[in-house]
Amino acid sequence: MSTARPVRVRAPGKINVSFRVGPLRPDGYHSVASVYLAVSLYEEVLATPRADGAVTVGVRSGSELAFDLDSIPLDESNLAVRAALLLRELADRPSGVHLEITKRVPVAGGMGGGSADAAAALVACSALWDTGFSREELVRISASLGADVPFALHGGVAVGLGVGDELTPALARKDLNWVLVPASFGLSTPKVYAVADTLRERAGIVVPEPGGVDPAVLQAMHTGDVAALAKVVSNDLQAAAIEQAPELADILDLGVAEGALAGLVSGSGPTVAFLTSSRRDAEELAQRLSDVAGVVALPVHGPVHGARIMA
Ligand SMILES: C[C@](O)(CO)[C@H](O)COP(=O)(O)OP(=O)(O)OC[C@H]1O[C@@H](n2ccc(N)nc2=O)[C@H](O)[C@@H]1O
Ligand SMILES: Nc1ncnc2c1ncn2[C@@H]1O[C@H](COP(=O)(O)OP(=O)(O)OP(=O)(O)O)[C@@H](O)[C@H]1O
């Protein structure tokens, strides 16, 4: 359907419930095996047509988190702008658009917030410009914007191979309840990968190709066995994130001491995610972490849908 009216899209942040990192490839990326879970913390992009043909962006906070909005570029390096420019070129449209981003996913937090913005911008502009691209085509297009962008479009639960962009849907029988503890600072994704390489080199570890994901993780999600899942969640980037920000180790210990079934750093960090048994346990843990440590702690659940137009 063609529309000249503004289009609002929301796209989720993610947790890597399991994340294996293989060797560094010649292109500067690592081959990975990821179990992605989309969680109920959403970015929103409102796309409004611009008559002058320009592609512009604005960012505002939609959260109680103290976002460093100044660290987000407002030029052509903004991921949402890159998405719109790429789509415009592929669809051969002369159209302009203003993208207003409402941020709720921690910036540089390891939860794919910028990727969610890119996915939301693709879906919004595709509707605005009536490109006729299918969802599958948008997913394919999105891979050139970043390794996490296809999953922000896809949503739900998925296995990500290659650099994380080769997705296969997976099943979660039950809604999983987590508590997120965002940090007041960000970590650079390439830096965390580089530190991971250095740590492995120093330990004399020759890193194998990740192959696939840990089948025990898929099995636990498939059967909805949260206790079993808690035993197998893991992230190969966690040690490198802790090396960069040692306080993350204390937060991980605290969450488990306060009753989380398990804790792990999300993606390249520094956001920490704690698994709990129920929505109620997540709310109680978030309250305790806030009381005991004075940290912001957000209960979330997943799987949730990928980038989608809002009514
Ligand atoms: C850490 C994760 O968030 C886990 O899902 C992703 O692997 C990162 O995904 P992303 O932020 O979308 O990454 P991109 O924007 O494509 O890449 C940023 C940088 O991260 C590093 N990178 C990213 C993905 C990957 N499989 N191997 C890498 O080494 C590379 O240095 C790359 O230049
Ligand atoms: N729309 C955007 N939103 C946030 N950051 C953006 C955006 N466009 C470009 N960036 C740049 O990308 C950097 C990382 O952003 P993002 O919030 O996606 O990190 P992240 O969640 O750690 O990413 P990932 O988990 O995918 O590695 C920011 O510091 C910023 O400089």
Name of the CATH class of the largest domain: Alpha Beta
By DSSP, the count of extended strands is 12
Main beta sheet: strand number and arrangement? Answer: 8 strands, mixed
Distance between the termini: 14 Å
Bound molecules: 4-diphosphocytidyl-2-C-methyl-D-erythritol, adenosine-5'-triphosphate
Number of domains: 2
User: CATH topology of the largest domain, anyone?
Assistant: Ribosomal Protein S5, domain 2
As a percent range, the share of helical residues equals 25-40%
CATH architecture of the largest domain: 2-Layer Sandwich
Order of helices and strands: EEEHEHHHEEEHHHEHHEEHEE
| Poorly predicted segments | none
Shape descriptor: globular
Number of helices: 10
Kindly name the structural category.
alpha+beta
| Strand coverage percent | 25-35%
Mean pLDDT rating: 96
Structural Rg: 19 Å
Written overview of the protein:
The chain has 311 residues and is α+β, with helices and mostly antiparallel strands. It folds into two domains: 7-170, Ribosomal Protein S5, domain 2; 176-302, Alpha-Beta Plaits (2-Layer Sandwich). Helix content is 34%, strand content 28%. It is built from ten helices and twelve strands. The strands form two sheets. Strands 1, 2, 3, 4, 5, 6, 8 and 12 form an eight-stranded mixed β-sheet that branches. A four-stranded antiparallel β-sheet has the order 9-10-7-11, sandwiched between helices. Helix 1 (79-91) runs parallel beside helix 2, helix 5 packs across helix 8 and helix 6 (215-223) packs antiparallel against helix 7. It is globular, with a radius of gyration of 19 Å. The model has no long low-confidence stretch (mean pLDDT 96). Residues 71-73, 77-80, 101, 107-115, 117, 148, 186, 189, 267-268 line the site of adenosine-5'-triphosphate. Its EC number is 2.7.1.148. It catalyses: 4-CDP-2-C-methyl-D-erythritol + ATP = 4-CDP-2-C-methyl-D-erythritol 2-phosphate + ADP + H(+). Keywords: ATP-binding, Isoprene biosynthesis, Kinase, Nucleotide-binding, Transferase. Residues 218-291 form the GHMP kinase C-terminal domain. It comes from Arthrobacter mobilis.
